[in-house]
Amino acid sequence: MFINDVEQCQWIRQKFESPGVMQFSSEEKRTLLARLVRSMRFEDFLARKWSSEKRFGLEGCEVMIPALKTIIDKSSEMGIENVILGMPHRGRLNVLANVIRKDLEQIFCQFDPKLEAADEGSGDVKYHLGMYHERINRVTNRNITLSLVANPSHLEAVDPVVQGKTKAEQFYRGDAQGKKVMSILVHGDAAFAGQGVVYETFHLSDLPSYTTNGTVHVVVNNQIGFTTDPRMARSSPYPTDVARVVNAPIFHVNADDPEAVIYVCSVAAEWRNTFNKDVVVDLVCYRRRGHNEMDEPMFTQPLMYKQIHRQVPVLKKYADKLIAEGTVTLQEFEEEIAKYDRICEEAYGKSKDKKILHIKHWLDSPWPGFFNMDGEPKSMTCPATGVPEDTLTHIGEVASSVPLEDFKIHVGLSRILRGRADMTRKRTVDWALAEYMAFGSLLKEGIHVRLSGQDVERGTFSHRHHVLHDQDVDRRTCVPMNHLWPDQAPYTVCNSSLSEYGVLGFELGYAMASPNALVLWEAQFGDFHNTAQCIIDQFISTGQAKWVRHNGIVLLLPHGMEGMGPEHSSARPERFLQMSNDDSDAYPAFTQDFEVRQLYDCNWIVVNCSTPASYFHVLRRQILLPFRKPLIIFTPKSLLRHPEAKSSFDQMVSGTSFQRVIPEDGAAARAPGQVRRLIFCTGKVFYDLVKERSSQGLDELVAITRLEQISPFPFDLIKREAEKYPGVELVWCQEEHKNMGYYDYISPRFMTVLGRARPVWYVGRDPAAAPATGNRNTHLVSLKKFLDTAFNLQAFEGKTF
Ligand SMILES: Cc1ncc(C[n+]2csc(CCOP(=O)(O)OP(=O)(O)O)c2C)c(N)n1
Ligand SMILES: [Mg+2]
């Protein structure tokens, strides 16, 4: 244990070293016994009814149920009203049944393979589903809300998600000290020791915008000595080495001693609710069966398991003790067992009448009032996203001012603010100002905005400056965005720790708590998102399909080929597009509500804006939509300061909205009959193309159309564009390498729109292993080469497709 604080050390010493601290009344002992009965008999019941089903039983650590209940009881006693839990497979069904008190009937019907799902989505296995339940705590007689967050197989991935949700619940209740809302994280010993995200999550606990004011961690430590079980093998001793890293007290306790366990748990809860710091309870136990019930542990650990089979179950040991000391009679004990078995049998009987499975019964974060009574969106329209001009002007003025008196800002920043004032006067915006206006206008409408990531306050490219720093007074800061209107929603902008997996998971969890918040995570550079790949694959792209849960998180991923080398160039658009679920081969029905339907049906939205106005609208649309979808935005780097990359207020005022496709509007569009080639592109390459076209004098002959929304694919608008220029050669131009970027995604979709009658020629960089060259000259040469092809009107002559 590595605690430097004397008061805290004394506190722990007093709790464990004072003689006679562990005293229990007979009532408490009987409650503990009853809880052990439930824990053990629940597993027995499942084993009897479904002997060949995986359930990841708790046998060997049945004490986890009274342990968790004690933490909750004690916390409720200390004022906690809302507990958010994250846990892996081991004992999860038992926790649902006996801690959260999910209807047994609903748990049992999950074992029926013939049940039809009533909800959209592909569902998930029973030991991954989440849960939300409000109940009265029997011990304290106070209301308590418990939720268990749904999670994937990926061990520990849910940890930061739980913390983000907890932080959000604290924020929305004004519970800055974590006195009302707390989290509990349960871990397996191997995962706890081995998975890095555990430490990323612990590390967040000391950062003001990320702390949940302490979490109680419970480790189901079923590794006895050294083992050759490949699922549990690890090379370093546990958990002393872990203690150094997590900077929290770890209380080890023998899981075969239930009274010691609940004493330790109540001390842990008291620690959390006194010091608002993390604490770990290490339940040292064993695993009576294999990894799951179908597994044979004797294959690999024959001696250990011979020993385990000789172990007397904890319930029997404890019951014998209480009977011997006269706290309960054998008859009372047997009645307690019979009573719970009857409850299980009755629920089992009822579960057999169920025909339909409602995944919606397994939501961990309901959003009351957001959907209609049937859980559907209240409308199916996509509102206009423009705002009145005076709102834009007002935000522009605040964005270029210092709202606090006697606040000295850096001279370089004064220049930037003057630039903003100038743009506001001229009714134009650059990228940073457009973002300001999107955030500011949402704040005006009562939407909380939270932007998190490495260095987001200033912006990686030093363009944002949402937090001003007094040059004369240490740590004096000002966030002008919070000085827009007296009754605005709060704006949170926070520099995160240097983590992607942990922080993205955290923000995803944050976005789960409420639909009325715009929660954005920005990668330092887009390619760094891949260290958070598990959150993207397991939660963001699939979350709704698995758990019918909407999530409106926004990922801002700086992307663009600027000769900066293989790492700082690509946000890997191809990966996001490959995971998009819109059908490349189905010719859609272009109904009136096609645009919004498509957004409703997709698993996420992928955009690459070419103008500040486009960025402004898509951020606003994200919240104005009547449902929530994750939004992936490839954001610019060099365009942040590009003189052409500006938008006028005219493109943002009331009546304007997000344009999924920006058609050519120059000379070529005025005389489509003259046009020889129509180039489709997305993002920054548009500016390179326009410049090259004009230098080659091809403005009349080549049209350039931009896709702002790449996925779901704007089939309708692409069709319209292609029809506007009948018979002309169609080209897709991208700056990324051919096996990357957008080409593999757009190509079959173009074929579908065009009825496979015309080709879309590829123009861009050749296929490559690395996303970008490390050599600036090679970068420029390859740029010139593909721009030449883009405007060589003979390039595809005679070629077949
Ligand atoms: C990130 C990740 N890697 C590998 C696995 C495969 N796996 C499932 S359970 C398990 C062992 C877990 O051991 P432990 O954390 O001690 O939990 P226990 O099953 O002993 O309760 C492994 C390796 C996984 N689910 N997630
Ligand atoms: Mg284990």
Automatic annotation (TrEMBL):
Matching InterPro entries: 2oxoglutarate_DH_E1, DH_E1, KGD_C_sf, ODO-1/KGD_C, THDP-binding, Transketolase-like_Pyr-bd
Enzyme class: oxidoreductase
Gene: OGDHL
Transketolase-like pyrimidine-binding domain sequence ranges: 429-642
Localisation: Mitochondrion
GO biological process, one term: tricarboxylic acid cycle
Cofactor(s) listed: Mg(2+); thiamine diphosphate
Protein name: oxoglutarate dehydrogenase (succinyl-transferring)
UniProt keyword annotations, A-Z: Magnesium, Metal-binding, Mitochondrion, Oxidoreductase, Thiamine pyrophosphate, Transit peptide
Domain of life (superkingdom): Eukaryota
Gene Ontology cellular component terms for the protein in this record: mitochondrion; oxoglutarate dehydrogenase complex
GO molecular-function terms, A-Z: metal ion binding; oxoglutarate dehydrogenase (succinyl-transferring) activity; thiamine pyrophosphate binding
EC number: 1.2.4.2
Family per record: Belongs to the alpha-ketoglutarate dehydrogenase family.
